[in-house]
Write a structure and sequence with these properties.
single chain; Cathepsin B, Chain A; 10 helices; Peptidase_C1A; alpha+beta; signal; 297 residues; 9-stranded mixed sheet; zymogen; hydrolase; Papain-like_cys_pep_sf
């Protein structure tokens, strides 16, 4: 197996086996479903007035600031499908809907509905564009839906999507027995002109956005040594490039005087620190600060 070969090399001491290291190299590459070469440039939001590090807490965790939004704690699992772009987008949408509603809308938004019905978003399990997901959310709306096997919401993640292969067809109806009506369950972002925006590649700008409005989507380059991450602050040291990946940034902090971004991955709780990872902050590690996007509720 590819993972066993990797772990036999001179890997960082924080490398560890997980279920993804047992994948073949082709299956690992599938998980990285963002193509930054065709990243759509969104309007850039610049906070005003901007704090240059002054007034920000040393450590911040969105899960602690908004404890009434348990949805922020959720670690989702994209399975063997290149739908990280959809998961990152719906995770941020779910979190921000809950925050904006003061906990009234504490639900999972459906990656299944987004990846199968948004044609402008890309290619479903074969990759897509999280920035387009926010525009689709405002224009068309997205229904609720939990993870594979959960039966939660209108359209939970399907076995076909979780297992990889072809992208499921777009079905504009809720699963039988859900008690939900598809049109009534659609949730929309703010007006199209302000529904999606990027944050400049500036640490203080990103911090202020998260502190005031909630988690954001971050896109970065994945290398071999990220696959085997288990704990600590990640910095790329060894291994080849595997693809571009989208995740959710929920906060920041410092560990042993090393600044980091606190992030939630979509590879389930068996990976990393129960699905969470830390990545070096302030040095655009693997491009993490270069492509940060989000949207308005």
């Amino acid at each position: 197996m590819w993972g066993r070969v990797l772990l036999g090399q001179s890997a960082p001491k924080r490398a560890a086996r997980n279920y993804i290291t047992e994948f073949d190299i082709e299956d690992i590459k599938i998980l990285m479903g963002v193509n930054l070469r065709y990243f759509r440039v969104l309007p850039e939001k610049r906070a005003s007035p901007i704090f240059r590090g002054e007034g920000f807490p040393i450590n911040f965790d969105a899960r602690e600031k908004w404890p009434h939004c348990s949805i922020i704690n959720s670690i989702r699992n994209q399975g063997n499908c290149g739908s990280c772009w959809a998961f990152a987008a719906v995770e941020v949408i779910s979190d921000r809907m809950c925050i904006k509603s003061n906990g009234a809308l504490n639900m999972h938004i459906s990656p299944q509905n987004l990846m199968t019905c948004c044609r402008s978003c890309g290619y479903g399990c074969n990759g897509g564009y999280p920035e387009e997901a926010f525009l689709y959310w405002a224009r068309t709306g997205i229904v609720s839906g939990g993870d594979y096997g959960s039966n939660e919401g209108c359209q939970p993640y399907s076995r076909q999507a979780f297992s990889g292969g072809t992208t499921p067809a777009c079905i504009q109806q809720c699963q039988p027995g859900s008690g939900l009506n598809y049109p009534a369950d659609l949730h929309f972002g703010k007006h199209l002109s302000s529904s999606a925006y990027s944050i400049s590649a500036d640490v203080a700008e990103i911090q202020k956005e998260i502190l005031e409005n909630g988690p954001v989507v971050g896109c970065f380059k994945v290398y071999d040594d990220f696959i085997t991450y288990s704990h600590g602050v990640y910095m790329h040291r060894t291994g080849g490039f595997q693809g571009d990946h989208a995740i959710k940034i929920i906060g920041w902090g410092e560990e042993n005087n090393m600044p980091y971004w606190l992030c939630a991955n979509s590879w389930g709780e068996e990976w990393g620190m129960n699905g969470i990872f830390k990545i070096l902050r302030g040095h655009n590690e693997s491009g993490i600060e270069q492509f940060v996007i989000t949207g308005n509720v």
